[in-house]
Amino acid sequence: MIAPSAHHPFKSSPLLLAFRSGEIMRVPAGNVLYRLGEPATHVYWLHRGAVKLLKADERLKPRLLHILGPNHPLGLPDLFVGSYLHTAITLDYSLVCRTTQERILQLCKRHPDFVVHLVQRLDRKLRHAEQRIALLATHPPEKRVQHMLYLLHQELGLDREGYLNLPISRKDLAELASVSTRTLYRILKKWENRGWVHIDRDRLRILKPDELFHGIQEIR
């Protein structure tokens, strides 16, 4: 059940101009915001919570591509394609703002700075995608798991005890890193023995992020 909210938490910024008159929704975990292939009629802004993006593989089996935390637009590139490129499902109780395709296109026409901002965002998204493709193609499993955890650490943050702010199954972690669950567990146990992480069912505690993420270069 997606419930509208009277409270509007979004402040002005180049992209958030499009959401100032949008619909605020409180969305429980497990709700679908939009599905792959549906007409891209709306764009979403994730203010609080987490969303996973899935896309069908060559066997038409849903494949987990990304997990996104707060302060992300959802469905923005899809707007210019005409249909949604992924399925977006909430992983946690989320606060989401939804605006229409017409609103985004109006801002593009009226505000050149807004168009520049969109191009910069899409360029950054493309470079991240290219980096991930290169990583999966050329790096060993341990490096892929390291990079995947780094991205989740950046997206979701850690609580006071060092746990990722969202429980994530080993199956999802393995899928994000394109490794088997057995390989993932072997790598995490190796890092646990070094004192870098602690495995606790579907929760992962990062004890020494400096050692764990040493050598990673972030694309901006």
Walk me through what this model shows.
The protein has 2 domains: 3-134, Jelly Rolls, CATH 2.60.120; 139-212, Winged helix-like DNA-binding domain superfamily/Winged helix DNA-binding domain (Arc Repressor Mutant, subunit A, Orthogonal Bundle). Helix content is 38%, strand content 24%. It has helices at 76-81, 101-110, 112-138, 141-156, 170-177, 181-193, 209-212; strands spanning 3-4, 23-27, 32-34, 42-48, 51-56, 62-68, 72-74, 87-90, 94-100, 197-200, 203-206. The chain is elongated and about 55 Å long. The model is unreliable at 1-11 (pLDDT under 50).
List the helices and strands and how they pair.
Elements: E1 3-4, E2 23-27, E3 32-34, E4 42-48, E5 51-56, E6 62-68, E7 72-74, H1 76-81, E8 87-90, E9 94-100, H2 101-110, H3 112-138, H4 141-156, H5 170-177, H6 181-193, E10 197-200, E11 203-206, H7 209-212
Antiparallel strand pairs: 1-2, 2-9, 3-8, 4-7, 4-9, 5-6, 5-8, 10-11
Helix pairs in contact: 2-3, 4-5, 5-6
Query: What count of helical segments does DSSP give?
Result: 7
CATH superfamily of the largest domain: Jelly Rolls
Q: What CATH first level of the largest domain would be assigned?
A: Mainly Beta
Please identify, by name, the CATH architecture of the largest domain: Sandwich
